[in-house]
Amino acid sequence: xxxxxxxxxxxxxxxxxxxxxxxxxxxxxxxxxxxxxxxxxxxxxxxxxxxxxxxxxxxxxxxxxxxxxxxxxxxxxxxxxxxxxxxxxx
Length: 90
Description:
The chain is an all-alpha fold. 89% of the residues lie in helices and 0% in strands. Helix 1 packs antiparallel against helix 2 (43-80).
């Protein structure tokens, strides 16, 4: 039971770090996009900056989704091992 609780806390701590890193990454992306927009001189440059920012955000969303589902599977596997969950595991 103690080992399972330790795994749960370790998993939650890792998820917390991942989300904090993701928030910092999002702030960097917003700052970079803002700097690029401030430096643009034409509508095509503005459109290109928005496209690049949008592409990066979509990549981050896809990566976040994969990580979320992977971590969810791991977390559920840990939960199933808790005492009293014998009927769930069968």
